[in-house]
Design goal:
This protein has 217 residues and is mostly beta strands. Helix content is 3%, strand content 43%. It has a single domain, classed as Lipid/polyisoprenoid-binding, YceI-like (Lipocalin, Beta Barrel), CATH 2.40.128.110. The longest helix has 7 residues, at 110-116.
Amino acid sequence: MPTRLSYFAVPLALAAALAAPVIAQPGPGGPGGRMETLHGAGTPADVKAGTYAVEPAHTQVTFSVAHLGISPFAGTFSGASGSMTIDPKNLGATKLSVTIPISSVQTTSAKLSQELVSADWFDAARFPTATFVATSVTPRGPDNAAIDGTLTLHGVSKPITIMAHFFGAAQNPMSKKESIGFLARAMIKRSDFGITKYVPMVSDETVLVINAAFEKQ
């Protein structure tokens, strides 16, 4: 059994960095030139088997694209709902289903945030939610797992793989509920889902970063 929960996680860097662990990313300022990272509490031994609900206030889905080939640009979805059934002794049997409201999208530009819900982009009126349903979970070392599943976005369903990293496990001191968290990373091509506005000036390749929090039911 892995020594650190081998479940969910998704990319923090853009394309070239996608497959590399975040802790190994070179960067200024950190010891030895390494980028600093955050660490959670607990170990996989602290995870209780059972069914967990998405904790929406602390779950975020961020998407990043390359803007005009000059800089990365990101936006965030919130208000997630869903559930996960997990047993640390049998990760392959994990069940996961998450739904995100498209209208929750926010960027640093109020004008762009409004445009993104329009028919030119996500078309929230016709396709109000995005969903991910896992089909398999495969351990990838002591801290990570590959989560294969189906992403439905903009009315199109496609298989994707999410790379997941166990972040923490503890009792939430506010809710008093057993809670676990993951960092998840994936890359998609938005054109695969019919979202083609400004490709290639705004990159087709889109990195997803998921900060996921779950509370035991």
